[in-house]
């Protein structure tokens, strides 16, 4: 199992999510899958259904955008 990709609140879009594949995960263009939206703000983390990459908010980070 790979290490989760830690995100800052500033890394999330205005809805509190992130897209995978992501440059944050150091993914190469040849090794990608269809783009999926992961709602990280709701639970503090999200897991990509294609590649299994886990994105999570870094400890102490809080998302307050529009909710």
String of helices and strands: EEEHEE
Total beta strand runs: 5
Count of distinct structural domains: 1
Radius of gyration: 11 Å
Strand content: 25-35%
Count of alpha/pi helices: 1
Q: Which whole number gives the mean pLDDT?
A: 88
Helix content: under 10%
Model regions low in confidence, pLDDT < 50 over at least 5 residues = none
**Biggest beta sheet summary:** 3 strands, mixed
C-alpha geometry: globular
Content-based structural category:
mainly beta
What does this structure look like?
The strands form two sheets. The protein has a three-stranded mixed β-sheet with strand order 1-5-4. Strands 2-3 form a two-stranded antiparallel ribbon. It has one domain. It is globular, with a radius of gyration of 11 Å. It has one helix and five strands; from the N terminus they run E-E-E-H-E-E. A hairpin with a 6-residue loop joins strand 4 (45-47) and strand 5. It is mostly beta strands and 67 residues long. It is 6% helix and 27% strand. The protein has one helix spanning 40-43, and strands at residues 5-7, 17-20, 36-39, 45-47, 54-57.
């Amino acid at each position: 199992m790979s290490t989760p990709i830690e995100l800052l609140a500033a890394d999330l879009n205005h809805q509190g999510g992130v897209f995978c594949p992501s440059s944050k995960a150091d993914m190469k263009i040849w090794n990608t899958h269809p783009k999926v939206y992961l709602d990280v703000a709701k639970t503090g983390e999200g897991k990509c259904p294609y590649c299994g990459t886990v994105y999570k908010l870094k400890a102490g980070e809080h998302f307050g955008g529009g909710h």
